[in-house]
Input
Amino acid sequence: MAEVEPAGNRTQRLRFPLGYGGRVMSSGNEFSAEELAFLRPIFMTSAREHLASIARISGELKETDAGDPAVEALHRSIHSLKGAALQIGFLQVGQTARMIEQVVLCARALGPGAPAGWLALVQRGVPVLTDLLDAIERDEEREQDAGLLLALEDWLKKIDEGDQCQAAG
Output
């Protein structure tokens, strides 16, 4: 989970273990530099496709559609993006997608009774993930979007407090 830097307000920064000089890419994987050079463009193409799918599906859904079969397709895209990012070592993308995935899994498990806000959080995550992917392509450092991560955590905490989402976990 993320480490939260002490701060007096909700705009505090969350830091994920990044390695590799603090850049978006982590050195915590087992790929050689040559393998990463080969895998990076493949990952980027796949990640952009999954992100487009996430944007499209989430844009077509309504908050009350948590039980809709399209939520499963949304979950698959988020899950695939998360898995690929974590496998290749792009931890910020993977961790952000993991938290979004948890919200989608919970909403799906709760169906039409899912609390409001889950879909807005998914939609809010699209530009954040896009920004992280852009940073990877430019090999730039990028801070996590603490506001999104805190909002995701808050939504999940509300659900967990009521034990409403055991089926998702």
